Amino acid sequence: MSNGKTKWSAQWIAVELLIMALIGLIFGFLGPFGTYAMPVALRLAYWVGFIIVGYAIFRPVSISAGWLRESIGISVWAAELMATAVATLPLTFLIGFAISGMRFDPDFLGDRFVLLYLQCGAIGFGIFLFMRLLFGPDEAVEQADHDLIQSDNRKIVPASEPIKLVRTQLHDRLPQSFPGMIIALGVEDHYVRVHAAERTEMLLLRLSDAIKEMEPQEGMQVHRSWWVARDAIVTSKREGRNLRLSLSGGLEVPVSRAYVTKLKQTGWI
């Protein structure tokens, strides 16, 4: 029900609560979904009360959905639809309990429950759209997109140590003529392609096992199909909304949105 513009700022929550109360008053005067037959005072209290209760449920769920979006890289719309579907359930139970005379009515858990669930969900998502229209996109989303733009063709901060050829357990699986510096691992079907700056080799191995055998080489998985060595990163660049890492030797590796935050936190980009 909120666009989460400033997370848990007390001042911003107060503003949102005021807006929720005003929305509740509007619904109270209009009396939708069969509530117009209620006395005016009761109708206003009903709508203001449940809009604010709905806000108290939707707000933390919406923020959690934002964290999920940042973690797995889904769109803000998909995250908010998920939040609406989850938060609507307890709200529907509460409203059903109230309109059943503050008691549990088993007969309510049927078509009436489904209809009320859809009505609550539509109102919740509608308020989210209204708040987004009123205040613009979530600051967190804007900041993430800004960070991606700022990373366009930016030089990576070099490692404090000079590049060293690190001998790893994975080298034991490779031909002796393979160059010492492994710069990346990429998945191809059931194989892992081991990349050096000037050569590649295929190994019948899972990526997770190959990554374990790369210790003590400093590196990170940046995509479900890619691992890169820290010392091999030259630049990062953006193609549309996608981030890519350019490695020594000219290899370019895609970065999943789920890994962008981790790369920034570690100072790699």
TrEMBL record:
It comes from the Bacteria. Residues 182-269 form the HTH LytTR-type domain. Pfam families: LytTR. Signal peptide: none annotated. The keyword Endoplasmic reticulum does not apply. Keywords: Membrane, Transmembrane, Transmembrane helix. The chain crosses the membrane at residues 12-30, 36-58, 79-102, 114-135. InterPro entries: LytTR_DNA-bd_dom. This is LytTR family transcriptional regulator. It comes from Parasphingorhabdus cellanae.
